[in-house]
Design a protein that fits this description.
CATH topology: Rhopdopsin 7-helix transmembrane proteins
Number of strands: 3
Distance between the termini: 51 Å
Helix content: over 70%
Number of domains: 1
Order of helices and strands: HEHHEHHHEHHHHH
CATH architecture: Up-down Bundle
Strand order of the largest sheet: 2-1-3
CATH class: Mainly Alpha
Structural class: mainly alpha
Number of helices: 11
Largest sheet: 3 strands, mixed
CATH superfamily: Rhodopsin 7-helix transmembrane proteins
Length: 319
């Protein structure tokens, strides 16, 4: 591998979140608890959606896939960070580093596209309710998910391939707690101007395309809601979209700050990265379950051991 991209560095050292051992132990305890809650919360959503035939609408199909992405997304970075806390040398091999970068962008990019598709789903449900089940039929939703995963793969492959081409001949200390494009780019021992442009442009195209779809979807949604004669109808419609808006804000905000700028390390980068790698996968199941009465009922039944894969006869799902 070194001969292919002229790298002499075979491994990197991750600086982690802090150099203080006491803070590292504190972070270990905190992030371990948060990670376990993330695994439990998202696993419960996946189980509930797939265990009950009433949760067969496109909204819950996409929500189940979102929970699966959050499971994978958090697992890419957190376990490695936790395992490094009690190690004197927090090393990661070159191949492991590129692999971590690839999967980070695979799941993160796929989630960006999925959140955009979920906005379109809400647009059809609110603006064209009579056509909803005709437009968002099962086959169409399946191919939407295939397209989302394909787009995420192309994005992550581009980011990993461009980073892999960079020559690394020292230093090898990454000022971060995981391998990512910008922290690696600043370590390259050659001019990275053009590669940096391609990397930012790649992230920019994804952000712009997702933003345009999100913008027009919610313009249409808000316009339709404001025309509703019933105050209860407007309140219910706004409540339906509120969870998605919160998730989009938590996820896209930090990502825009990190990736839509030149590869310069700022002190705030690590803190911002914690928001979208640790807190967002944790918040998604909390936001969707706390604001969804049917999901809360199903979770209670599941935890009481009363749910079976034959379905819950007394739950009525209204999109």
């Amino acid at each position: 591998m070194a001969s292919e991209n002229q790298s002499t560095v075979s491994e990197f050292i991750l600086s982690g979140l802090s150099q203080s051992f006491q803070l590292q132990v504190t972070f270990f305890s905190l992030f371990l608890v948060l990670y376990l809650i993330t695994l439990l919360g998202n696993s419960l959503i996946i189980t509930v959606v797939n265990a009950d035939k009433h949760f067969c609408s496109p909204m819950y199909f996409f929500l189940s896939n979102l929970s699966f992405l959050d499971l994978c997304y958090s697992t890419v970075t957190i376990p490695k960070m936790l395992s490094h806390v009690f190690l004197e040398y927090k090393t990661i091999t070159f191949n492991q580093c590129i692999s971590q970068l690839f999967f980070l962008h695979l799941f993160g990019g796929t989630e960006c596209f999925l959140l955009t598709i979920m906005a379109y789903d809400r647009y059809v449900a609110i603006c064209n309710p009579l056509m909803y089940h005709i437009v968002m039929h099962q086959r169409f939703c399946f191919w939407l998910m295939v397209s989302v995963w394909l787009a995420g793969f192309l994005h992550s492959f581009t980011q990993a391939f461009l980073t892999y081409q960079l020559p690394f001949c020292g230093p090898n200390r990454i000022n971060h707690y995981f391998c990512d494009v910008h922290p690696l780019s600043v370590l390259a021992c050659s001019d990275t101007y053009f590669i940096d442009i391609f990397i930012v442009a790649n992230s920019g195209m994804i952000s712009l395309s997702c933003f345009v779809v999100l913008l027009f979807s919610y313009i249409g949604i808000i316009a339709t809601i404001l025309k509703m004669p019933s105050a209860d109808g407007r309140s219910k419609a706004f409540s339906t979209c509120a969870s998605h808006v919160l998730v989009v804000t938590f996820f896209f905000g930090p990502c825009v700050f990190i990736y839509l700028r030149p590869p310069v390390n700022y002190p705030a980068d690590k803190v911002v990265s914690v928001l979208y790698t640790v807190l967002t996968p944790l918040m998604n199941p909390i936001i969707y379950t706390l604001r969804n009465q049917d999901m809360k009922k199903a979770l209670k039944k599941l935890l009481r051991g009363k749910m079976t894969f034959k379905g819950l006869s007394n739950i009525d799902i209204n999109d």
